[in-house]
Amino acid sequence: MVAALNAALRASLDRDSKVLLMGEDIAILGGVFRVTDGLVKDYGEQRVVDTPLAESTIIGAAVGLAMRGYRPVCEIQFDGFVFPAFDQIVTQVAKLRVRTDGQVAMPIVIRLPFGGGIGAVEHHSESPEAYFVHTPGLRVMAPATPADAFVMLQQAIASDDPVIFLEPKRRYWDRGEVDLAVDIAHATPMGRARVTRSGSDVTIACYGPMLRTCLEAADVAAGEGRSLEVIDLRSLSPIDFPTLVASVERTSRLVVVHEAQGMASVGAEIAAVVAERCFWSMEAPVIRVAGFHTPYPPNRLEQHYLPDVERILDAVDRSLAY
Amino acid sequence: MMAAEVDDYRDMLRIRLIEEELLKCVQDGRVIGSAHLCIGQEAIPVGACRALKSDDPVVATYRGHGWALAKGVPPVQFIGEVMGRDSTLNGGRGGSAYLSSPDHAFMGENSIVGGGLPMTLGLAMAHQRRATGLIPAVSIGDGAMNQGNVHESLNMGSVLGIPFIVIVENNGYAEMTPSTDLTATPAAVRAAAYAIEAIEVDGNSASAVAEATRRARELAISTQRPVMVEAHTRRLGGHYSGDAQAYRPKGELEEWGRLDPLTRARSLLDPTVAEATYQQVVAEVADAFARAAQLPAPLEEEAMKHVYAN
Ligand SMILES: Cc1ncc(C[n+]2csc(CCOP(=O)(O)OP(=O)(O)O)c2C)c(N)n1
Predict the structure, then answer these.
(1) ipTM over the 0.90 cut-off
(2) For chain B, which terminal residue's Cβ has fewer other Cβ atoms within 10 angstroms, N or C?
(3) Which of A24, A100, A106, A133 is the best residue to mutate to test the B interface, defined by the most B CB atoms within 10 Å of its own CB?
């Protein structure tokens, strides 16, 4: 997936001279996860900028660049380091278009490696998506596969809206086929979910790092004679409710899976909206499988915290028991 | 020379009269909410904008009415915007504290103290990359010198070699607290810590501010770094329109009032010229308020507009 993201950045830098990358240790080092490896060599220091350690001003400077037609792509090294920049994201990036009555666009991408599972400490394992999904004016995307990472990052950079781009860090080393010739204008559009695996008994909605786990759960369930439909949401703001609703109307059951804490989460929003729209077709309440209501735990406990196949299948059982 | 002095007086007076009337508007409901006025500080935006190129982008704070007008934003639209009407600036979405006019290189006010610094750095990065020769400027209060964003931006601008001007309007107070109680070292002293140049100036003289800004602009270009101008001034009104100012020591306003930049600007003029200018601006401002009041209110169905590109 790292190579797919790197290729997406190259394609975007080639396509539009206004694209420029900023972040801590992204140029000479190539980023702590090597996503920007080699780019400064090919595109120069004016387009691949190593900045001081100052997240708020990395994002804030992107605002000024965007005001003058640039398309900055900012890397925040780890999920937990986005909080110093939260001010600029929420008070400026998300609001400038509205505040200026549409005169100023904010085509900024904020790349955020997110989620746990790599044995790292708290601020390196968090899933902060709900804060951003809650904020009008931002788009929030999370690819789950190398192929989607390649397409979705390019779409995010081409978008005239600011995008929080969540990269599932424990899937960085996943391998998968990527069609480098794909035309992003004709690929699955931004904001659209995908039914990754069709099924008829229970719909599972997930995104980012959880897709692989949910597909594994679906394999196990199939062995037990249960057919799970797995939807990769891909976009968390907006959420593709038409795709979700169509699926739930067929299966009558929905389980939402994410690493982020369940309280006031993406899963909570989905449960509310699906309950409103699918009330008469549902056989069971929406069930959420999520992180627990605690700061991200230390590494010896993280496998307990992260949703796994067993917890997903328990939720499926509970849903089917109604 | 006389012409420049008349211009300074006229431009400062326009800001003063508009703000005095806006204060009445807040009180009688023509403006909903509050306003942060720059009464006593008008010489800074007027002087600085004399030295800046008209396309040099300017970023200001909630106390930015003077900057908008000094950048040439038309008074009728400006007043209408503050009144929350459907002005050509921001359709009432900007209001007193957030208005902008990119067409006049006025990139906007900001209600987050210190929030305008990073975007000014970004504007400067853009202009440097495009070699436009333009130098962005940002106004902040002395209280903002304690915000992380300000330090981050001055440091980043210095190490990345990005030229812009930060104008610190030291008006004696941050909200209701004297600046000296909040800030360990003066702004200009801190500049040395970022290895950038700083110029201190009497902020109640438009010509002195213009001269300082001209030098700052040259220094920004020659050093290819941020440059700080600390303009010493006095806030002659409340922090905001509803501020009763009970915290002020007795007699302070009278003493500070003697430094009023407008009185000073007028004293430099021939009395007949001064009076004629005064009458002309009074009439112009009255007309602008009358016309601004005719602008329509924003439509309810437009409340959801512009959240996303499409
Ligand atoms: C981040 C933030 N914190 C607090 C406030 C509330 N506030 C508004 S103005 C102000 C004082 C700022 O003082 P200074 O920077 O000296 O500017 P002045 O108002 O004197 O022009 C404060 C604390 C704010 N607007 N933003």
Answers:
(1) yes
(2) C
(3) A100
